[in-house]
Amino acid sequence: MILAHYYQEPAIQDIADFIGDSLDLSRRAAATDADVIVFCGVHFMAETAKILSPEKTVLIPDLDAGCSLADACPAEAFAAFRAEHPDHYVVSYINCSAAVKAQSYIICTSSNAVDLVRQIPADRPILFAPDQNLGRWVARQSGRELTLWPGSCQVHENFSEQALLQLRLEHPQAEVIAHPECQPHLLDLADFIGSTSKLLQRASDSPAQEFLVLTEPGILHQMRKRVPGKTFHEVPGSDGCSCNACPYMRLNTLEKVWRCLDTLQPAIELDEELRLKALAPIRRMLEASR
Ligand code: 13P
Ligand code: SF4
């Protein structure tokens, strides 16, 4: 079973058995009866698949495909932060290591974070990690106060407000759609905010014919395939570079996919005690967001 995230290069998306956002992919990884999963995404995604399906061989085309958000939250520092807030429910975004998941009450993705936070008893304080931008947006949507771990995604942090305003002048009819990992001043300019799969859905449901897309440009491939008559523009990074592309996601290539199918390497390995600790909050998420 070849699973691919929307941020993978188009050639990988085109050969995948299933393409989705983090939530869809973790559900699919849990449900498949294939013996081998090739996870075309980043390490925390493949690791989540292994946590859910320890008996399966879970491969990732490039083992160095990490995530700046996961790296921004080392497990020991997170344990110290938790110790300062002992009465808090810990809600962790799926973009974190197994060692941080193991310290969490529940995992969320950008698809279900608002819903899951709303389900937490109103009298309990909440600690949210590791993405402060997603956390601020969830706090606003849910009306809950969240204590935030100060992490962020290097890709979504970097979109240029000036470039977005310029694009809006050039395409006044375009709808601005954004991933909640973007900074608040950019989200304030968005007409619609959601996870990658919700952005894709919006692209087909919206009456707009043109879109300015504030997320990793890999998803434009699916948008163009799903609604070929509409026009999609990517928004550049702050210095006009192509740093709106996730450097970790883009480490995977079609050739590396072929090689890992051929050799069944590199495979995700996980300590069993850690796996079981990380499994409980992921299961809570899957049950609560059914
Ligand atoms: P989604 O869960 O929306 O697919 O986001 C994953 C991600 O890494 C965004 O940067
Ligand atoms: Fe991580 Fe950001 Fe890349 Fe998503 S886009 S995988 S959050 S570095």
What does this structure look like?
With 290 residues, the protein is α/β, with parallel strands linked by helices. It folds into three domains: 2-65 and 249-269, 3-Layer(aba) Sandwich (Rossmann fold); 69-154 and 279-288, 3-Layer(aba) Sandwich (Rossmann fold); 159-234, NadA-like (Rossmann fold). The chain is built from 14 helices and twelve strands. It has helices at residues 10-15, 22-31, 43-52, 68-71, 75-83, 98-101, 113-118, 132-142, 161-170, 184-187, 196-205, 219-226, 254-263, 272-288; strands at residues 2-5, 18-20, 36-40, 57-59, 89-93, 106-108, 126-129, 146-148, 175-178, 192-193, 210-214, 231-234. A four-stranded parallel sheet has the order 2-1-3-4, with helices on both faces. Strands 6-5-7-8 form a four-stranded parallel sheet. The protein has a four-stranded parallel sheet with strand order 10-9-11-12, sandwiched between helices. Strand 1, helix 1 (10-15) and strand 2 (18-20) form a beta-alpha-beta unit. The model has no long low-confidence stretch (mean pLDDT 96). The structure holds 1,3-dihydroxyacetonephosphate and iron/sulfur cluster.
List its salient traits:
12 strands, four-stranded parallel β-sheet, binds iron/sulfur cluster, alpha/beta, Rossmann fold
Question: What's the SSE blueprint?
Answer:
Blueprint: E1 2-5, H1 10-15, E2 18-20, H2 22-31, E3 36-40, H3 43-52, E4 57-59, H4 68-71, H5 75-83, E5 89-93, H6 98-101, E6 106-108, H7 113-118, E7 126-129, H8 132-142, E8 146-148, H9 161-170, E9 175-178, H10 184-187, E10 192-193, H11 196-205, E11 210-214, H12 219-226, E12 231-234, H13 254-263, H14 272-288
Parallel strand pairs: 1-2, 1-3, 3-4, 5-6, 5-7, 7-8, 9-10, 9-11, 11-12
